[in-house]
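Morning run. Coffee first, then this:
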Amino acid sequence: YRHFLTGLVYADVQDAASIQAGIREMERAVALDPEFGDAWGQLAGLYLMDWWDGSAELSQRDRALETLEEARKHAPDGIHTLLTEASVAFRVDRDFSTAIEMYRRAASRRPSDVTALVHLSGIYRRAGQWDEAEEVLNAARLVNANNPLVSSLRCENETRMRLATAPSTCRHAQDVNGTDIWVWRYGILSELVLNQDTAAAHRVLARLPENRRRQVLTGGGVTSASLDPAYYRRDFRETVQWSVRSTERGVLAWLMGDFATARAIGEAASEAELQLLAVQTQEGRRPAALAYRNARIAVARALGGDTVGALDYSEQALALVPPEYDAYSRL
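And here it is:
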């Protein structure tokens, strides 16, 4: 149980080193007590997180699914089993309805724990159900407004919704959850996009040590392995995940003046996005999906220095946007 509790502390930090430390603690816990269902459930979740963050190969995802079977056997209704069930439904199966059901079950099992509510709010947002996302997030705030997960998600949601309160919300999130790279990224973006204040964005970055600044801008530094799309091309979903995250990091690097990093990321992301477009075209995906893919190629091409290609793919994206879509979608 001591190993289990220590692993939970590491799991809350959610950076690469802490995930590995949490995995080690949970592995020790189940080695000492093979019937410890909650430890199996949390271990499966950590394996999945390791894969999802791009730090591990596809085998880590398979290990997560195998470990989840042990959790189902020993604690089918345990809070950690339910949370990992929901995460698998969303991250592996892309089954939003099952993910929502599992997160709701987890929240009902432990009303004082905001973890399930925060993730449930995130699922609603990704499904485009903004009202439901805000309703659940407000419920989590009533439980614990200063919880790091609640603060981080408020920062992300308000930035994505372009609310004027986003910069101050992100500053609060940085104070209570400074280990989360994304609260710094969204803090920078909120200053740049909402306030158009480059100086304020640099002040956000200046609050971090030099090594953390690099991590915020590029996800820990650019290496040949992290930029090689072939490493992530085990299946379609992994390539999408890698390309989206890489492009976001590239945009941040470019905005902050690190053009060499932005170009390297753009060139690699462009190659991956072109492969994704070929797959989606062959599968006969709906025009809106192809429009989105072309738009992502345009961003990657621009980062890579190919302005002509960026404009070309932007025009292709606009031509594919269905006429019933609103102006925001076209923008």
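The longest helix spans residues 259-282. Good start to the day.
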